[in-house]
Amino acid sequence: MNAATFKKDLMASIVVFLVALPLCMGIAIASGVPVAAGLITGIVGGLVVGWIAGCPLQVSGPAAGLTVIILDLVNEFGLETLGIVVLMGGLMQAAAGMLRMGQWFRAVSPAVVRGMLAGIGVLIIGSQFHVMVDDKPKGNGIENLITIPQAVLKSLTLPGVQSQESREFRRDMLQEVGEIHRRQQDLEELVAEVYPHIHNPEIEYTEERRDQARESMQSFVEKQEEIQQDLEAAAARMQEMDQHFATPERAVDAATAAQAALEQNRTALAAFESGEPTDILAEQDKSVAAVQGLLDQLKNHHFAAQVGVLSILTIVVWQFVPKSLRVIPGPLVAVCVATVVATVFALPVLYVEIPDNLWEGVHLPSLAVIQESGLGALIPAAILVAVVASAETLLCATAVDQLHTGSRTNYDRELFAQGVGNTVCGVLGVLPMTGVIVRSSANVHAGGQTRASAILHGLWLLLFVAVFGFLLRQIPTACLAAILVYTGFKLVNIKDIRKLALYGKSEVFIYFATVVTIVATDLLTGVLVGIALAAAKLLYTFSHLDTRLDTEVDGKCRLHLNGAATFVRLPILASELERVPDGCELHVDFQELQYIDHACLELMMNWAKQHEKAGGKLVIDWESLHGRFQAGGKSNGAARQAS
């Protein structure tokens, strides 16, 4: 690599880093996992996958396309199972790459792929719209979409915070209590890993497990005592709440929530000290919910909605600034603008929760977690992660190849590299990755020349989080959710529907069927329905034949064939040929015929010999037939002789 090439890669890596930073955090929040899990995946995508990728200019990291799968997984099995699923999915990908199956993952109908992305986009919009107003997503995609008007009504409620001092107080309390909330959740996950038998009675609680639990319990008690002390300090500060709410009633509600969180945490601490695992998890879960209730009293939906709208408008407007400025990506500009506004006006909204040490977000897989959830229950999720991640990666690689004139993608190597990356992510217990078109196209357009740009972007992510991690806590969660809402909107690309319409209404039907099924049920069901419909269309196409016989006044006849002339439709073709009058000169029109097999062609040749004896003639335009029948020169030659 010469100096000029390295300089271009260096500049491109900075641009890609700026694009990746907000997306890594936003996708983590949308997936229901800590922000650190998204950032670590981005780092692995650069520093690990970048070295061995089969598509050198493709950039890997957490992708919006997997958020729905991960969110469902975490909600059903818990965050502690994430690493196991991603690890298994990564091993499947690596094995598929070694078995040279890279090309096969591309063998999916474009209507299904586009429908899958659009369905994911709709689900992202539905869930992240609620997060954009500092509310919680609902149970499923349909419910999220139906309750969007309620989220809008919440955002229209006028803020109950008037003065700068009041806003600063509530903002500080939100950040302080938010950090307590994060620590509570982390502790709950640790307890669940130590006591897997609580959720799965089939797991034997052996003496060895008891000893391990006793060793961990002292550490748990100490963590809970620290949380208790911080909550007591927060509750003491809440005595000042009267002057920071618009009405005394709201101040009372906030103070009551603070006291309830404090009392529940005391109960949880007592459970920790008793050492009874069932009580510990039950009371800790209530304690997390109580602190969440306190956050709900402190935050303001109206301000959060304003931050979200401001973020989306910033991204849209940034597309119209001079090209020289657009080297700074719109999402990063939106994050900067929203963070500055939230800081200057001290907005009482939810902020990013991230630990001081990024590696606190690492959760190593354990055998106990597998025993708790059951390997059989996790394998389908792992297969889904592997298939969707592979398809999205390889489709992205194809798109990247169209953006530059350099070396082409080695699909098997790229699939293997993604498998290695996801295996590493699984070991670390963080989000899975794919090749991402937003980051990859930014890399190409910014002048990236080699894999060095992707590698360096991972290094910049690592350095930024390690040195400037405290800045991430100043970012409003509503801003990151707004970026995801905009991303979801882009995934629902109207141009895709227009392109598919050029290939027939059936392609559009498959697209919408995939989208609707994904939104109404789940991603796997939607994709399977789309694939089934595409297969049914293919079967219909290669088994359907329309015929029309026109008789002309000059003794000529014309036989129009539309569809596929295969042995399945041989009786239809034979019946139509029998209708041809004796002595007629028959012209066969192949313009609308997609395929003709040897059986049908032989039928026509045999019929031609009989027809010639009756004074008729068969005329075939061999040029129009070219490509529809490839049985070798000998067969074609024989056919020409028969005509």
UniProtKB/TrEMBL annotation:
Give the UniProt entry's GO cellular component terms.
membrane
Domain MlaB-like STAS, first and last residues per copy: 559-620
Write down the SUPFAM superfamilies for this protein, in alphabetical order. SpoIIaa-like
Q: Which residues form the SLC26A/SulP transporter domain?
A: 6-156, 283-514
UniProt membrane topology term:
Multi-pass membrane protein
> Which UniProt keywords are present, listed alphabetically?
Coiled coil, Membrane, Transmembrane, Transmembrane helix
Which positions are tagged coiled coil? Answer: 210-244
> What name does UniProt use for this protein?
Putative sulfate transporter/MT1781
